Amino acid sequence: xxxxxxxxxxxxxxxxxxxxxxxxxxxxxxxxxxxxxxxxxxxxxxxxxxxxxxxxxxxxxxxxxxxxxx
Length: 70
Known about the structure:
Elements: E1 6-10, E2 15-23, E3 30-36, E4 43-47, H1 48-51, E5 54-57, E6 60-63, E7 65-69
Antiparallel strand pairs: 1-2, 1-7, 2-3, 3-4, 5-6
């Protein structure tokens, strides 16, 4: 799985910027480090395995995050 640095839109509509990849200190699981591009610009991490997942909302399937540019 290749996760590009840059801007993404979450399936619920808000935008985020992936600023790097990291490994969990105990499990070594790959994590995505990203920042909200709204509000206070909070910093978040999420398992990389979840990044490209498809999710279901109102009976439709969406990619959790869609790349929108660098």
